[in-house]
Design goal:
Strand content: under 5%
Shape: elongated
Helix content: 40-55%
Distance between the termini: 67 Å
Number of strands: 0
Radius of gyration: 22 Å
Oligomer: single chain
Order of helices and strands: H
């Protein structure tokens, strides 16, 4: 029975976190105009 209560509590906490993050909305950020370096530069 304690395991069922613990599972229900964990589910309620996870649901509350999801609702809180949803209420806050998406962050207003931007992307960098410079591309990311994905290749290793050649060694001299």
């Amino acid at each position: 029975m304690r395991a069922l209560v613990a599972a229900a509590t964990g589910l309620a906490v996870a649901f509350a976190v999801v609702l809180t993050l949803t209420a806050l909305g998406t962050p207003s950020g931007g992307t960098s105009p410079e591309p990311l370096l994905t290749t290793v530069p050649a060694h001299p």
